[in-house]
């Protein structure tokens, strides 16, 4: 990757990454009931489903009424009664969505989730900044090496 392709700041790097993630989430938010069930039960979902924002496919800072609206949309979509051909998996997905809602409807647990989210965002920003600065230093050092070999 050339230095021209690199974003100039770690904030830009994080923003680019975050924008890409949000585009994927937006695309996935209109999935069919079968696709939503598959998303919630995919390999590695145990880890991803720990994040109630990920489960409900919402931004962490949206108001509680919007969270409730999204919860209702998804719970209707994956409800076992609406998915008779895949009732067992639908029940599991429905429980995952309910668990996410229970966490976010409570002010205290929602605040804890927001705190974890903010900390993760700060750490990611710090890591991106570190990687970016390391890359720049390596580029400078390789140019100096070439200069000394002349």
From TrEMBL:
Descriptive protein name: J domain-containing protein
Domain J, first and last residues per copy: 51-118
InterPro entries documented for this protein: DnaJ_domain, DNAJC8, J_dom_sf
Domain of life according to the entry: Eukaryota
GO CC annotations on file: nucleus
Pfam families in UniProt: DnaJ
Residue ranges the record marks as coiled coil: none
Species: Stomoxys calcitrans
């Amino acid at each position: 990757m050339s230095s021209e392709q690199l974003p100039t700041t770690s904030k830009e790097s994080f923003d680019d990454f975050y924008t890409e993630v949000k585009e994927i989430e937006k695309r996935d938010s209109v999935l069919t009931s079968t696709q939503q069930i598959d998303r919630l039960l995919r390999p590695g979902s145990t880890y991803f489903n720990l994040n109630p924002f990920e489960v409900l496919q919402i931004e962490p800072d949206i108001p509680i009424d919007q969270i409730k609206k999204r919860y209702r949309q998804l719970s209707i979509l994956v409800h076992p009664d609406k998915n008779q051909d895949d009732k067992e998996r639908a029940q599991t997905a429905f429980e995952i969505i309910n668990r996410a809602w229970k966490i976010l409807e409570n002010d205290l647990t929602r605040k804890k989730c927001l705190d974890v989210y903010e900390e993760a965002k700060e750490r990611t920003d710090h890591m991106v900044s570190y990687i970016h600065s390391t890359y720049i230093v390596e580029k400078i050092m390789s140019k100096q090496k070439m200069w000394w070999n002349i």
